[in-house]
Amino acid sequence: MARAAKAIKPIIGLVPPDPSSLSWRDMKGLLKLGQYAHSLSEHELYRIAKLVTQSSADLLEEWFELDPLKGTKAASGIIGTYLGPRSPGTAYVLLHHYMGEIDGAFRAWGFAKNGTGGVTAAIASSARALGVEIRTNAAVDKVIVRGGRAAGVALANGDELSATVVMSAADPKRSFLQFVDQQHFPDEFVQAIRNFRVRGSSGKINIALSGLPDFNCLPGEGPLHRGAISISPSIEYVERAYDDAKYGNFSRQPYMDIIFPSMIDRDMAPPGHHVMSCFVQYAPYDVAGGWDDAKKDAFGETVIATIEKYAPNIRKVIVGKQVITPQDIERIAGITGGNIFHGELLLHQLFFMRPAPQWADFRTPLSGYYFGAAGAHPGGGVMGAAGKMAATEILKDWQ
Amino acid sequence: MPELSAVHHPLYQLRRTPFHARTSQLCLPHNWRRWGGCIAVGSYDLGLDREYWAIRNHAALIDISPLIKYEITGRDAARLLHRLTPRDIHRMQVGQVYYTGWCDDDGKLLDDGTVTRIGEQSFRLTAAEPQFRWLALNAVGMQVQITELTERLAALSLQGPKSRTILNLACEQPVDSLKYFRMAFNRVAGKAVSVSRTGYTGDLGYEIWMDAEDALVIWDTLLAAGHDYGITPTGILAMDMARVEAGLFMLDVDYTPASHAWIPGQRSSPYEMGLGWTVNLDKQGYFVGRRALEREHREGSSWKMVGLEIDWEGLEREYAAVGMPPQVPATAVRGSIPVYAGPRQVGYASTSTWSPVLKKYIALVHVQQPFHAPGTKVEIEVTVEHHRRKSPATVVALPFYDPEWKKK
Taking CB atoms and an 8 Å limit, are B354 and A103 in contact across chains? Predict the structure, then answer.
């Protein structure tokens, strides 16, 4: 997997060329892509072709025998998607989660001091040090268009900011269907964005604890509390969790990825206390009957009851909990559909198709308007890759 | 029953520290290192990251008992240390700690360590190597008593931003007022200890000195007090990464003591090692190496130890040439690596490491005039797939990492 991640990494860092275009830039990109494909051995090329089309279950069954191992690994393939481990395309999502690299170690998950928010805080403080002004709590109402060009943004509070270049880091739906009047885009583009799949499927339960849960399989405090705990006993378990979601319900026995951030960073909780972060699938954005308080409570209860099967003391140590559904993600973070990747990482929504065919190079049909967020190539995952590549492309146009 | 072989006799075995009963239980990978005739834990885990991050984020508990320790007492105790070291010992207050090197008469380093003024006529000296003979030679005609405490005095280093909080919980007296490089007496679990605000990591940290017989109960008390604050038993390999970030050097690794040098060129002066600030040429009276150091101060040094940051893009290019992502060492590397300016070798790295907190590949390097000015662009050798290549690098001032809470 590390070799496959290494093989696919050059594509991640490539501005997707448009295969239908004869422009110099796209031809150069295609040539690079061709050279890259040529540099791979036949074996690697076939493996990558399989990886992007296979289901994570099929991939894992080629390599492993043990159910809990396959279940846990398969789960990486469904994160942020509205698919099950037996759905084709999930092998790529699995790979996407293995591309992380920290201090030279591939397949590593990063933990930022003070939580993942520390990453954006660091970027913000670095930008401020360079003289950048950052406005927060300033909702954008519209992108101002003058003479067929993006000319600034109008804020919800009535302020107008003029600009030579506008870049959106919001999700594709918001960026193209809400911020800009549709008359400024070709119909085909609008249609493609409307069809872009952004259905959220993941929930999050954050739990404040007065002590650590004691797991049946490894009693006592131990290294397990510093690692990731996956509730995914088999591929079948995860697939059945998906079955519930397929028909509009949250999973009665959900898949869970649990970490204790306070075990890695003690400043995350008061001494002796802990926080437990449970990533849960599936929790459909448009759950049958809609999300109300009762439904949220029932979802939270399902999660706690599932944990209780493995760590019976859990209820005794809970001092507070927060249940986040995809609708909450949409409401709090402004991500349409509440999908953690701003749009699923599906084969038809990747590379030169992300967010729409012909517009994967961080430019948009509206000149002066750029798009550089998780909804663009190469997708989400706290990589910062889309933003960096978009900025590089903006600088190219600027000169 | 097999007969007990002679090798089982304690005389044939490496010494164990007073904490061995605890450390040996926790040292899961059996990663033991040698330190001053003792076995010391290299790491308690297979990887170093947890212990390293304990130093930088929480608190690392490190057994430093193998350090060589002397007690120097008597009417002439201050006089002896004033003569031995280039620092002004007569100005030292009781409870103060000095870091210092000491030299031979050619002004070349013999060893380095800390001097603590325990009382008016009582000092503690730590060293990397046994120094009894050198101390005795310098004490001729003086009224002093030199006692080696190495085995009698156990020591723990508690390093990291949470170390003060934990000590306040474990000690009878709070340590809040203990300033950087000061020492105070205290009690832990009813046992007498001395606590100095010193360390080898460049972070907030303390060293706790105790009677060897009290070692285990103090270890247990500290671990219990620190449980909720992330206290982590830590081996000397993670400390080795931290000390490079802190710009601190090690005897026999970053410099050769004059007493070990085969040839004069192997020796180093305090000025060359960046210890010019410890050489007090204004102090009264003679000290060993004074004339040579005065001359070097006047004429300038030809070498200097500085920091080097290896340029990441350059390193990436060298590895990309063979189709690999850059490889960085997961531990501090003790080995000489050539440093170049153009085609000419102008120096060498003595310890290099990946710095997880800085996300930089760094090295302690020794470079000739005029290449040691911060900002100087040089190249360092990297071995990529068995081939020697050069990667661009920049000279920087030491330390690499200096958190604001270190001295606060």
Answer: yes
Please give, rounded to a whole number of angstroms, the shortest distance from the CA of A265 to a CA of chain B: 7
What is the pLDDT, as a whole number, of residue A111? 86
- Predicted pLDDT at A50: 85
Rg (CA), chain A: 22
Q: State how far the Cα of B8 lies from the Cα of A390, in Å rounded to an integer.
A: 68
Pair A339, A158: CB distance under 8 Å: no
Provide the residue range defining the domain that includes B318: 303-405
Quote the number of domains for chain B: 3
A220 touches chain B (CB under 8 A): no
- The CA distance from A165 to the nearest CA of chain B, in Å, is 29
Rounded mean pLDDT of chain A? 92
Determine which of B164, B228, B331 to mutate to test the interface with A (most A C-beta atoms within 10 Å).
Answer: B228
Residues of B with CB under 8 A from a CB of A: 49-50, 53, 57-58, 162, 228-230, 323, 325-328, 330, 354, 356, 359
Determine the pLDDT at residue B2: 59
Stretch A74-98: mean pLDDT: 90
SS3 A277: strand
> Tell me, what's the pLDDT at B13?
86
pLDDT tens digits, one per residue of A234-253: 999 999 999 999 999 999 99
User: How high is the pLDDT of residue A380?
Assistant: 87
For A117-197+339-398, CATH gives 3.50.50.60
Mean pLDDT of A317-323: 97
Whole-angstrom Cα distance, residue B112 to residue B101? 4
